[in-house]
Amino acid sequence: MLNVPLMRIALVEPDRSQANLIGRLLLAGGHACEHFPASTPFLASAASQTFDLLLADVWSGDLAAEDVIPLARKVLPGLPVMVLITAPRESEIVSILHAGADDCLTKPVRGPEMLARVDALLRRAGVRRPRNRLRSVFGDYAFDTAHDVVTFRGQRVELTPKEFRFALLLFTNLSRPVSRAHILEAVWTRSRDVRSRTLDTHASRLRSKLQLRPELGYALTPLYGYGYQLDRVVS
User: Fold this and answer.
1) Using alpha carbons only, what angle is made at residue 230 by residues 225 and 234, rounded to the nearest 5 degrees?
2) How many CB atoms lie within 10 A of CB 81?
3) Residue 136's Cα: distance from chain center in Å?
């Protein structure tokens, strides 16, 4: 079965113990969580990485969440945001929602509630991810995730497990840029020591093996300094 984190979630939480707890809960729910102790390192990272959701404490170490939200969306437009509040007052919740938050969650968090709210928010945001199902079909491409097999126009294409995970990630995020950090987490299980050339070699092999050429309906484009994007080409 395909082993891919469901979502990449940025957690801005100055309290290390709370961050560890929330990170473990998100991991148990199948999500990849990257912790930042304040908003400044998060915003710097967001300039070169893909995040599907921001979980931010009402005081994010250096800025109030109300100020972090517009800054985050300048870098990642449309980013869903959930704010964590300890013993919230109604006026505080109203203020946060008016500032652009999509939801609020009371701390200390309760695992099942938090995961349910995260999943509901991601569904509403329409975020796309590799699905945990046995078969995914994208046009002439069919992915069998039980056996890491892909077929193109009825013909089996021989891919390595890493190539299969890379390809499925690209097709799931069709017409959406996918950062190198996201690819490394999904394909190489968060290994940061993978050389850039290794990733580019895998992309080149996918382009060849899956015939990702404009005349056949798809184009795989490297995004300089960022990652890759797969697009459907309509002739």
Assistant:
1) 135
2) 25
3) 19
HEC string of 27-90 equals HHCCCEEEEECCHHHHHHHHCCCCCCEEEEECECCCCEHHHHHHHHHHHCCCCCEEEEEECCCH
Check residue 193 and give its pLDDT. 62
Q: For residues 9 and 225, give the distance between their C-alpha atoms in angstroms, rounded to a whole number.
A: 21
Cα separation of 208 and 188, whole Å?
21
Tokens of 22: 């929330």
Q: Phi, psi at residue 222, to the nearest 5°? A: -75, 135
Which of the 8 DSSP states describes residue 109?
P
Please list the helix, strand and coil fractions of the chain in percent, rounded to the nearest 5, in that order.
40, 25, 35
CA distances from 130 to 5, 89, 120, 123, 146 (A): 9, 38, 17, 13, 13
Residue 156: other Cβ atoms inside 10 A:
11
H-helix or E-strand containing 149?
strand 149-152
> In this model, does residue 211 exceed pLDDT 50?
yes
Question: Is the pLDDT at 4 greater than 70, yes or no?
Answer: no
pLDDT beyond 80 at 191: no
Measure the CA–CA gap between 61 and 1, rounded to whole angstroms.
Answer: 39
Q: What is the mean pLDDT of the chain?
A: 85
Domains of the chain (ranges, CATH numbers)? 8-125 (3.40.50.2300), 135-232 (1.10.10.10)
Specify the range with the lowest mean pLDDT, choosing from 106-110, 185-189, 228-232. 185-189
Tokens in use for 178?
A: 């996918």
